Amino acid sequence: MPLPDVVPTKISSEAAGFIKLTPVAREELSIVDLIERILVVTGKDAERVAAILGRGSFVSGPSRYRWEAFDADTGELAALFERFPDPRPERPFEAARSHTIILRGRRGSVEIRADFARRKRLLQRANFWDKLLALVEEQSPSYARYAYGEKSDVYSVKLPFKAVQEMERQADLLKYSTVVQQIRHLQTTGAELYVSR
Question: Euclidean distance between the first and final Cα of the chain, in Å?
């Protein structure tokens, strides 16, 4: 049986508690849109995707997707996967195309977006994004994977103590003191960089 062109889908929040009810959105997703959302969870694994389609539900982030279950041929799925990018480990890191850096540390993680980190305080010449990107780039980020949800290649890097100290010092360039405190509390050990193609 061929894959359907459109899949009527119910989308609800997984954040709902047993007392609070959240509305269920109904949306007709094209098979391509549904597969793209599933790839965020599975990557290009035709057997896993087929199993999810046959189960009729999956969770991605705070959302649960449900539809009438159907069987999917793994060969047909593999052909459909050709529409989506593949990881490219040979791709060199391009700092100018970076849009997000996730700092990882002993106490969690902090996401830094370029548009946020480029904002300057009054009379300030430098911005935190450029300083952070320069520090991270010095450590030669290596290719990690392709992130379907962000439509980006992901590079990872370990940050030596000296670079972390400099980053924490440069954090004063940020406009918001709560983010500065999060960065300094993190005990950063490394970072992931999201780069648009």
Answer: 35
- pTM, whole model, 2 decimals? 0.83
Q: How far apart are the C-alpha atoms of 193 and 149, rounded to whole Å?
A: 14
Q: Which residue intervals of the chain are DSSP H helices? A: 31-42, 46-55, 74-81, 114-117, 128-137, 161-170, 177-185
- Cα–Cα distance between 118 and 122 in angstroms, integer? 13
pLDDT tens-place string over residues 40-69: 999 999 999 999 999 999 998 888 999 999
Q: Can you tell me which residue has the tokens 């440069």?
A: 170
Residues of the chain by 3-state class (helix, strand, coil), percent to 5: 35, 30, 35
Contacts of 102 (CB under 8 A, 6+ apart): 109, 110, 111, 112, 191, 192, 194
Q: How many other C-beta atoms can be found within 10 angstroms of the C-beta atom of residue 88?
A: 11
Whether 175 and 119 have beta carbons less than 8 Å apart is answered as yes
